[in-house]
Amino acid sequence: MSVKETLQLWDNAMDQYDSGDVNLALETLRKIPERSAKIEFNIGSIQLSLGRYDAAVKAFDNCIDRDLYLAIAYFQRGIAFFKLQRYIEAYRNFETSNDRMRAHDLIDYTQLGLRYKFCAWEALYNTALTHTMMGQFSNSSSYLELALTLSLDDRSADKLKKAQNSAARKELFSLHELPKQMLFRPPKAMTSNLKKQDYLGKSQVVAFLEDGTSERDKSPKNSPKSNPTCNCPNSSTYPNAKPKKALASDAVASAASASTFTSSTISSKPLPALPKPTTVTGISNSGSLTNGSSKMASFSPGLNTSSSSEASQSPARPNVKPVIVKVHYNITCAVPIQPYANYASFQQQVTHQLQGANISFWYKKNKTGSLQRISGDRDMSGVWDGSDPSSCLTIWCYDLTGEVCHSAT
To answer: Closest by alpha carbon to 58, among 40, 75, 70?
Structure first.
């Protein structure tokens, strides 16, 4: 199938979906033999909206096979698994969706044809819900606290706070889903010229007389006796009229009357006097005023006009907020810890969250570097110095026997 035919079917399916023919739109998309990740995503989303969760999982599998970094596809597949009450698979897909965000707060899919901005807090919210469904309320609260730091507006923050209150009472909260109209659409620049357009149009008869001649044939402009460019009377119109001869006296009289009119007009309406140019005195070449400078502050481009006393005053330092530490062990959890905590305090809080596991701590100085062990306050200080307070800190935990219980994805 050609690209033009594929775009035509894709565009027709979106028109059918917007008009309410969901099943017809689904069948139209299935007619495309070589479906891209976007079309498979649309098929999976439509199946999900119709309650066909097994078919939706299969469609999202095909979508992810074609694009491994489409974070929103993992999110949608996690919702399908959640509807099937397969909470472990749902947790893995929500966690992978957050990893595919690659430390971004949101991904704008508008340029790809999906008018939606997918946020990181949405994946963390549903991850917390899966922990709640499995009875792990402490992990659910940690994920919700991490999602609250990534919320972008008051509406999302209110939803996360309500979920936190429900998790604190060990109650369930609602699943977060995408709107049903969120589908990938073909580019308008490629679909605008798919239909055949008639730019010239068709000729139409404006008027037609009974004798077979048109109005144009009997118009005065086409008559051989008339001259539309001449203002003189025509002999055919005025048969007794005689042509008027131009005399030299008439030309002199016309010139005299024109000169009289011009002179009278000018004398009756004198021109107003132009204002005299004013000069500003007291301004030097440097642009500063020589008089009255005591009432005006001197200005120099590029310099700060504030006083030295105001510049020396620094704003009050805000209260230090705890840093969210993302811990990879048998499960992935988030632990809030005060910045620059010593090794003993750090170890106590993490092991308490992991229910007293006998483990060691490792971290990466950069994303591509190898793991390095944290064994004392000196290593702990290096970890804090190399971390960003505005983002979360990621560590890996190993059993002291040397067996790896969990590795980073």
So the answer is: 40
- List pLDDT tens digits, range 268-298: 445 555 555 444 444 444 444 444 444 443 4
Helix (H) or strand (E) holding 117: strand 117-119
Distances, alpha carbon 172 to alpha carbons 100, 123, 128, 164, 334, in Å: 27, 17, 10, 10, 20
Taking the C-alpha atoms of residue 5 and residue 33, their distance in angstroms, rounded to an integer, is: 11
φ, ψ for residue 308 (rounded to 5)? Answer: -70, -30
Give the type of residue at 392: C
- CA triple 394-399-403, angle to 5 deg: 105
Mean pLDDT of all residues in the chain? Answer: 76
Contact yes or no for 262/256 (Cβ under 8 A): no
Q: Could you tell me which of 26, 23, 24, 29 has the C-alpha nearest to residue 9?
A: 29
**Pairing of the two strands 106-108 and 371-374:** unpaired
- Tens of pLDDT, residue by residue over 148-194, are 999 888 999 999 999 999 999 989 999 999 988 899 999 888 877 77
- Report d(CA 158, CA 221) in Å as an integer: 78
CB-based burial, 267-303: b 16+ in 10 Å, e otherwise: eeeeeeeeeeeeeeeeeeeeeeeeeeeeeeeeeeeee
Q: Please report the DSSP string for 44-65 in residue order.
A: HHHHHHTT-HHHHHHHHHHHHH
Backbone torsions φ then ψ of 78, nearest 5 degrees: -65, -35
Contact predicate 113/185, CB 8 Å: yes
Chain CA centroid to CA 385, Å: 34
Which residues lie below 8 Å from residue 156, measured CB to CB, with a gap of 6+? 119, 121
Share of the chain above pLDDT 90, in %: 37
Has residue 207 got a pLDDT over 90? no
Question: Amino acid letter at 240?
Answer: N
User: In the block, which residue shows the tokens 């990879």?
Assistant: 328
Tokens 């199938």 found at: 1
Determine the pLDDT at residue 326.
Answer: 86
Q: For residue 208, which phi and psi values (nearest 5 degrees)?
A: -150, 130
pTM as predicted: 0.50
DSSP per-residue codes, 139-204: HHHHHHHHHHHT--SHHHHHHHHHHHHHHHTT---PPP---TT------HHHHTTSS---SS----
Give the integer Cα–Cα distance in Å for 325 and 224. 98
